[in-house]
Amino acid sequence: MFEWDESYSVKVHLLDSQHKRLFAVLQELQDAMIAGHGKQAAGRLLERLIDYTVNHFATEKALLEKCKFPGLAAQRSQHHDLTQPVLALKKEFDTGVGNVTPQLMSFLQDWLKNHIKKMDQGYSDFLNAHGVR
Question: Which of 51, 74, 93, 96 has the fewest CB atoms within 10 Å, measured from its CB?
């Protein structure tokens, strides 16, 4: 479900590397769920997912601000749309109320594919034109 291939490349090495790490974390979470260890692994993996998003979104924002990317506001909005449900799930999970479900995994997969292939690839040529590779 969460397998990186070059169709996801944004042609910026640092961001591609970070996206690959995101795919790996989500694949690890899915594998744990399939093996019946989703509950045991979920807290740790959700924490890694949150850490990843904070760091990745900050890196992306800094590059886009530096180059004065005109679509920065839309990019920030998309980031918020992912971060809030994941933070809410982590809070629920920590209190014993929530769990990682196939619906969440489907949401993350759809978001990931749509965000990278539409939003992130939308800045690819712009950043490359500003010398960011």
Answer: 96
pTM above 0.70, yes or no: yes
What pLDDT is attached to residue 129?
97
Q: What is the Cα–Cα distance from 123 to 133, expressed in whole angstroms? A: 12
- 132 with 124: CB under 8 angstroms? no
Q: Which residue's entry shows tokens 């679509």?
A: 71
Q: Which domains does the chain have, with CATH numbers?
A: 9-129 (1.20.120.50)
- What is d(CA 9, CA 16) in angstroms, rounded to the nearest whole number? 6
* Residues 52/21, Cβ–Cβ less than 8 Å: yes
Residues of the chain with pLDDT under 70: none
DSSP string, 82-122: HHHHHHHHHHHHHTTS----HHHHHHHHHHHHHIIIIIIHH
Place of tokens 């795919």: 23
pLDDT at res. 102: 75
